[in-house]
Specification:
The protein is an alpha/beta fold and about 375 residues long. It folds into two domains: about 5-240, Type I PLP-dependent aspartate aminotransferase-like (Major domain) (Aspartate Aminotransferase, domain 2), CATH 3.40.640; about 245-375, Aspartate Aminotransferase, domain 1. The chain is built from 13 helices and twelve strands. It has helices at about 5-10, 50-60, 75-80, 100-110, 125-130, 155-165, 215-225, 230-240, 245-265, 285-290, 305-315, 345-350, 365-375; strands spanning about 65-70, 90-95, 115-120, 135-140, 165-170, 190, 205-210, 270-275, 295-300, 320, 330-335, 355-360. Helix 4 (about 100-110) links the parallel strand 2 (about 90-95) and strand 3 (about 115-120). The radius of gyration is 21 Å and the shape is globular. The termini are far apart.
Length: about 375
Amino acid sequence: MKFNTKTIHGGQKIDPAFNSVMQPIYQTSTYAQERPGVNKGFEYSRTHNPTRTALQNAFASLENAKYGVAFSSGLAAIDAIIKLLKPGDEVVSTNDLYGGTYRLFTKIFEKYGVKFHFTSMHNLEDVKSLINDKTKVIWAETPTNPMINVFDIEALAEISNEKNILFVVDNTFASPYLQNPLELGADIVMHSATKYLAGHSDVVLGALMLNDDDLAEKLYFIQNASGAVPGPQDCFLTLRGIKTLHVRMQRHCENASKVANFLNNHSMVEKVYWPGLKTHTNHEVAKKQMSDFGGMLSFRIKDYSKDQTVKFLERLNLFTLAESLGGVESLCGHPATMTHASIPKEEREKSGVTDSLIRLSVGIEDSEDLLEDLQNAFL
């Protein structure tokens, strides 16, 4: 089954109750049993819910995985993975990553004895130098948030396989439409399904996709035991969003290409970060492992201070100043004070997240309107 067909039919079955074409919303917390332990496969909705099961099957199909696991947010999905570890275990992570992930790692799990090392993954020797007999996870975000760095998934998978280390890829910025990390050697793929998968800025939800039976059993146990599960309404909305993922991503990529090239040729722009540009550090890697270059980009305006950068954002009209990304509408953000405010200034600036950096989530509006909106914001 081709990807465009998977978004609509992948992992889905006609609901047996009334043969409804769309998966029903099973808005219930519990289920009648014929006698104790005898039921139709559902007992309590924290453990299982038919709408969530349909979504998990769709997740698995999108990433060509055996299992999909749904959570109440992307961070809840990350939380479940780190709960596989024990005190004394270590993680080697991308240093340019979502601020919420950094906060979860350093402010929550470090105090329980898990140690995190952050490094750029452009240089594989830097990654290898941080690995020891306590290293249990390599965590890669690619493309990264917000610097849009791209790392070689196959090369990182070789390192993890050689050392018998769990390799996790946050695939949120690419989406399964552009990149399939499991096929490149990853053990687990993570998504903030809030973003491109749901795609309409009306859901908060997370996803894990994987093939290993034992890992899946552990993660389903954590999902149930910790209870960070999405409700059926959110599962339904995400299922509906997935059905248009392919057509949305195509337009996101087309528009982002036009915006990136417009900014790259603008006299007031210092630098544009988008993997489709030949000047991007890992453009060739992106060409190898992605089918297109995505709808996310960042840029800096020459000689702009923090206040000037914020005022530029305030002058935008169609690009709404807001958290999050991946919805049909275009969004803009100031990572240093918004998505990455939880990262200490010195640390975030090392990875390039300075006060003059602007992040754009390019939506699916008419590209000419988006370019005009950007041009009008320049002074």
